[in-house]
């Protein structure tokens, strides 16, 4: 986001992160801890249009309530059966993963091999990271300058994401190029452990799904490595005008599959049977969802499902996501014929997504590559 002068009626007043949203004609919303430093940071000019109806949103008050959404429990799969079970256990576990991937596009996994202690350390380091002053996160090249917040391309409220994140390639997390005395040393150490464990888990799940469709699983993820995959640390601050703003706008993931670790706050929703359903948090499980590349490769057998995060007016939310991606020059073709999609490289796919977001304000994704 660019820095600039004040914005009429709406000023983003930076203390610790986005510590105040100050609405000069109405009231002040404080949703983070304050510090003594207060430097105003304004929205980019085009954000004025996005929030032009803020008067009305704020005046609605308690009448501005979010629609009630049905809560669901995702399929829960015990992965210990893959490693320690007999042949029948392995077959049943494989079938459960494939079924959930085709019917839901989302599922939860237990006994996934990543300790609660490590995930707890990651959450604590993540909180410390986001508690740093905004200017330090935005300008000091923490984690190699992969900090982002809001949605720079947004032109309306429904395109805006009320969140901040560090979106890091796994290769840039490595401690090799950083001093042991660096302020981010322990953070990187924990991130590197988590990323390595999630990469191994993601490869295992991808192998299982590929083999279930008759494809040699060992070669499926050979182009997915630390230089191509990403770890994203998310924070969703309390939002004073929830539910008019998304924590993360509706989208599908541009990868093979995603592994999500989230706190107990909730807010994740997915599209099921043409309606939004809320995912019930489970502190013992990781969430896995199919990405666009797996849907294209499987010829629509596995489903990349639209999902979103709702902003929360009372509590902040933390999550961490791992994205299993191939190299940009990897060709994605369907494993079955006749193919529904034209073949494309991952680089071409990302380029098309970025162009569509700039032109239309939203991702179009796989429909761009349908064979007509």
Automatic annotation (TrEMBL):
Keyword tags: Dioxygenase, Iron, Metal-binding, Oxidoreductase
Q: What EC number is given for this enzyme?
A: 1.14.11.13
- Spell out the PANTHER family in the cross-references: 2-OXOGLUTARATE (2OG) AND FE(II)-DEPENDENT OXYGENASE SUPERFAMILY PROTEIN-RELATED
Protein's recorded name: gibberellin 2beta-dioxygenase
Q: Which family does it belong to?
A: Belongs to the iron/ascorbate-dependent oxidoreductase family. GA2OX subfamily.
Please provide the Gene Ontology terms (biological process) for this protein.
gibberellin metabolic process
Report the superkingdom from the record: Eukaryota
Q: Note the SUPFAM superfamilies from the entry.
A: Clavaminate synthase-like
Q: Name one GO molecular function term.
A: metal ion binding
Reaction equations catalysed: gibberellin A1 + 2-oxoglutarate + O2 = gibberellin A8 + succinate + CO2
- Write the lineage as a comma-separated list: Eukaryota, Viridiplantae, Streptophyta, Embryophyta, Tracheophyta
Cofactor (UniProt): L-ascorbate
Primary enzyme class: oxidoreductase
**Domain Fe2OG dioxygenase, residue spans:** 225-326
């Amino acid at each position: 986001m660019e820095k600039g002068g004040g914005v009429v009626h709406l000023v983003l007043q930076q203390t610790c992160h986005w510590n105040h949203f100050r609405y000069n004609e109405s009231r002040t919303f404080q949703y983070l801890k304050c510090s003594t430093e207060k430097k105003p940071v304004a929205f980019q000019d085009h954000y004025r249009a996005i929030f032009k109806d803020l008067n009305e949103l704020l005046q609605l008050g308690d009448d501005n309530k979010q629609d009630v959404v049905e809560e669901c429990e995702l399929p829960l799969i015990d992965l210990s059966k893959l490693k320690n079970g007999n042949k029948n256990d392995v077959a049943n576990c494989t079938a459960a993963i494939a079924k959930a991937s085709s019917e839901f596009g989302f599922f939860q996994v237990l006994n996934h091999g990543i300790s609660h202690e490590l995930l707890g350390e990651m959450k604590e380091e993540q909180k410390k990271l986001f508690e740093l002053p905004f200017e330090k996160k935005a300008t000091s090249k923490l984690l190699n300058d992969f900090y982002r917040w809001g949605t720079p391309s947004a032109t309306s409220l429904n395109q805006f994401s009320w969140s901040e994140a560090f979106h890091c390639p796994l290769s840039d997390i490595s401690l090799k190029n950083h001093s042991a005395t660096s302020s981010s040393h322990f953070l990187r150490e924990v991130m590197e452990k988590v990323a390595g464990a999630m990469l191994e888990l993601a490869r295992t799940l991808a192998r299982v799904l590929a083999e279930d469709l008759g494809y040699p699983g060992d070669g499926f993820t050979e182009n997915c490595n630390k230089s191509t995959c990403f770890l994203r640390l998310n924070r969703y601050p309390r939002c004073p005008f929830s539910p008019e703003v998304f924590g993360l706008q509706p989208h599908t993931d541009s990868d093979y599959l995603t592994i999500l670790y989230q706190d107990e706050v909730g807010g994740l929703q997915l599209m099921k049977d043409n309606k939004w359903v809320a995912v019930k948090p489970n502190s013992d499980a990781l969430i896995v969802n199919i990405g666009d590349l797996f849907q294209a490769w499987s010829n629509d057998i596995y489903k990349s499902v639209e999902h979103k995060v709702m902003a929360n007016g009372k509590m902040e939310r933390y999550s961490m996501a791992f994205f299993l991606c191939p190299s940009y020059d990897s060709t994605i073709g369907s494993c079955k014929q006749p193919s529904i999609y034209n073949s494309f490289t991952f680089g071409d796919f990302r380029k098309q997504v970025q162009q569509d977001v700039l032109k239309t304000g939203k991702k179009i994704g796989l429909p761009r590559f349908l064979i007509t």
